[in-house]
Inverse folding.
């Protein structure tokens, strides 16, 4: 059985993952409107990944007989001045999410809740990847600078990104 503290903390994390999904969808819509369909695609895939993260946490609460409580999702920004600006915000946001996952992990350890700690291991690894990906996009956009052809090539490449069901959800299917 999950403690109320852990249940509340996971419900807060579900809200944060859905906020992340909304943030990346907003970025996707901005780049759709700005004529960067590949960058828009990258963010729309990211939006689906964040929804999947929320779903993993929801499945976990359900599997432990705890109640998922969906709270209002705060408003997200709607404008980014450039692609690098959006990826810079993405990195900063993912660093915040990493801190939240680490806090959850510490809470699970403090409560000797080893099932929750084990479930979180996948998220700890996922955050390493999320931060690395955002950082590499910033690096690439820095190299591209104001080279329009470079940006066009990156946009073409990002158009190919497809959504892959994360392992914890795939295992459940
Ligand atoms: Mg996430």
């Amino acid at each position: 059985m999950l403690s109320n503290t852990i249940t509340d903390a996971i419900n807060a994390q579900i809200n944060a993952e859905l906020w992340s999904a909304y943030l990346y969808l907003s970025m996707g819509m901005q780049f759709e409107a700005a004529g960067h369909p590949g960058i828009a695609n990258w963010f729309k895939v990211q939006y689906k990944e964040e929804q999947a993260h929320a779903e993993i946490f929801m499945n976990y609460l359900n599997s432990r007989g705890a109640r998922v409580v969906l709270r209002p999702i705060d408003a997200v920004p709607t404008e980014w001045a450039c692609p690098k600006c959006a990826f810079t915000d993405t990195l900063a946001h993912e660093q915040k999410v990493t801190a939240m996952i680490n806090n959850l992990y510490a809470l699970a350890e403090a409560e000797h809740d080893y099932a929750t700690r084990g479930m979180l291991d996948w998220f700890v690894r996922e955050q390493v990847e999320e931060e690395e990906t955002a950082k590499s996009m910033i690096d690439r956009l820095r190299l591209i600078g104001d080279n329009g052809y470079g940006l066009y090539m990156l946009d073409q490449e990002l158009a190919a990104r497809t959504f892959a069901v994360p392992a914890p959800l795939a295992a459940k299917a």
The domain at 4-170 is CATH 1.20.1260.10 (Ferritin). The CA atoms of residues 3 and 111 lie 9 Å apart. The pocket of magnesium ion is lined by residues 17, 20, 50, 53, 97 (CB under 6 Å).
